[in-house]
Design brief:
Distance between the termini: 26 Å
Number of strands: 10
Number of helices: 9
Order of helices and strands: EHHEHHEEEEEHEHHEEHH
Helix content: 25-40%
Strand order of the largest sheet: 2-6-5
Structural class: alpha+beta
Strand content: 15-25%
């Protein structure tokens, strides 16, 4: 898989959308998102290819496991839904609404090649192209080796937020992760969701995270996350044969929560 394409771009509407995907399904979706071109018009007719061999190399998994995971993901992805909250924009949306749409419209599995080809749904594409006003970018490698679906989602929620601090209402987190009535006690939520997610982020991503809880009265209502880079990236050496970095290179040296424009400016790159 070409490293120049391994950049995930998601609208913040998707970051805070309500959906649930397995780790294997997230890896496939994120690998396909990293292939979306943002320098030309994108339609829902474009096919994105993901192979088991690419996933095995990217995630550091056994090729046989990657082959099985890809096949299982291909069978389920077409039925996966995502629920977005759309706010009035004064033009096309006049009242707050909740939109339920699909991630993909078709998925083809090519058994002999250990590969799938997929088309994103028409309604989801605008949220994956960077055309929305507020969006989040990060390197696919930041989450590739995570084995917790909650870890990937929590990482995105923190990278979305600059400043190294984010407080999340517990009800919002439950809705975004589609936890519904599972893990009703904070003790169970901590053991099954929060601690594994934070452990994965601290082990596999460029970020270190700690968290605490805040009560309203006697009830835990908010979670507070503090996060920072594990180490400050060294000053980037000037490229020998090119003056402009690729999107993937900028993403590799960007800081969590840093906007695309700020990252380019800090790295001495043209806008």
């Amino acid at each position: 898989m070409d490293s120049d394409r391994q950049l995930v771009v998601k609208s913040n509407h998707i970051i805070e959308a309500s959906y649930r995907l397995s780790v294997a399904e997230q890896r496939v979706i994120l690998s396909a998102i990293s292939q979306v071109r943002r320098d030309k018009p994108v339609t829902d007719e474009v096919l994105y290819s993901v192979t088991a061999a690419e996933l095995a190399e990217l995630c550091g998994t056994d090729p046989k496991t990657a082959y099985r995971d890809l096949q299982n993901a291909a069978e389920r992805l077409q039925t996966r839904r995502v629920s977005l909250v759309l706010e009035p924009d004064g033009v096309t949306i006049r009242s707050r609404r909740r939109r339920v749409t699909c991630w993909v419209q078709t998925v083809d599995y090519i058994d002999q090649e250990g590969r799938i080809e997929m088309r994103f749904g028409k309604d989801i594409l605008p949220y994956l192209t960077g055309l929305q006003r507020e969006f989040t970018r990060y390197a696919l490698s930041d989450v590739a080796k995570m084995t917790s679906a909650y870890g990937i989602r929590l990482y995105e929620l923190l990278v979305q937020w600059s400043g190294g601090h984010r407080e999340i209402a517990l009800d919002d987190l439950r809705r975004w992760l589609q936890l519904e009535d599972r893990y009703p006690s904070i003790k169970d939520l901590k053991r099954r969701v929060l601690d594994p997610a934070v452990e994965q982020i601290n082990e596999h991503s460029p970020m270190m995270v700690t968290w605490s809880q805040r009560k309203t009265g006697r009830k835990v209502t908010h979670l507070t996350f503090e996060f920072c880079l594990k180490k400050t990236p060294e000053k980037l050496a000037k490229p020998k044969r090119k003056t402009k970095l690729t999107d993937a290179e900028v993403a590799q040296h960007s800081r969590p929560g840093e906007s695309w424009e700020d990252a380019r400016k800090r790295l001495g790159q043209p806008a």
